[in-house]
Amino acid sequence: MSEIAQNLSAVQQAVRDTALACGRDPEKIKLIAVSKTKPVEMIREAIDCGTVDFGENYPQELAEKARELSGVPIRWHMIGHLQRNKVRMILPYLSMIHAVDSLRLAEQIEAEAARIGKKIPILLEVNIAREESKFGLKAEEVLPLVRTAAAMPHIRIKGLMTIAPFVEDAEQNRIHFRNLHQLSVDIARQNIDNVDMSELSMGMTGDYKVAIEEGATMIRVGTAIFGAREYHQ
Ligand SMILES: *Cc1c(COP(=O)(O)O)cnc(C)c1O
Questions:
Q1: Which of ligand 1's atoms lies nearest the C-alpha of 229?
Q2: What local confidence, expressed as pLDDT, does residue 225 receive?
């Protein structure tokens, strides 16, 4: 078995074990393989192991990989901060945008999606731990944006996403995952047309088990599958 195959099966096993131990259905947790900075050959290896959901952070890189792998059944997730002027470059390839954090970005996505006749599922990024350095909406900004974006016909709001703080002990992030979950429950209770809060994208290599215990439906895992990244953009 290749290293990627081994890594994938270890992560999948951990996802199953964690889900079952807290009474959740493992099938309700989607593993997104974060392939940023990693070569297409590694993506192909993961595909050979049955992976279909891949996450990328950088628009140029995502577009290049998507073109190289055109015809291969992949669902591309844009998980990084997205500038408005990059929406057009990647929208045709995308299955979901995870980090929508402003009305202006939502409007740009709506306009581009309308232009190419696509409906795109999105998540709103919440800076739930209120870190100075992070992108993302403050908790109290989420509902107003949900209400406005709900009226945009080419956007489908599917839930919330967060990038938790970098911590040594994943337990420290439990409160943030719990708070994001609660926020999504509060918003779902508003019963806004065209809005569903079924997805919670949270948890990475260091903390995905805690995220699953707190209700994650999508975990974004890079290092545990593809190994450490050699450069950071
Ligand atoms: C890089 C990245 C990940 C994956 O991080 P790992 O720690 O390598 O699992 C997940 N989400 C986002 C938004 C990222 O940028």
A1: 8
A2: 98
Contact by Cβ (8 Å): 149, 194: no
Do 164 and 180 contact (CB within 8 A), yes or no?
A: no
| 123: Cβ contacts below 8 Å, ≥ 6 apart | 96, 97, 98, 99, 100, 157, 158, 159, 160, 161, 199, 201
pTM higher than 0.90 for the full model? yes
Mutate to test the pocket of ligand 1, among 79, 210, 218 (most ligand atoms within 8 A of CB): 79
CA pseudo-torsion sign 121, 106, 190, 204 = positive
Does residue 56 have a pLDDT over 90?
A: yes
Average pLDDT in the 201-230 region? 97
Give the Cα separation of 50 and 176 in Å (integer): 31
Element (H, E) at 83: none
Q: Is the pLDDT of residue 231 over 80?
A: no
Bridge partner list, 96: 77
Nearest in space to 160 (alpha carbons), one of 134, 132, 133, 188? 188
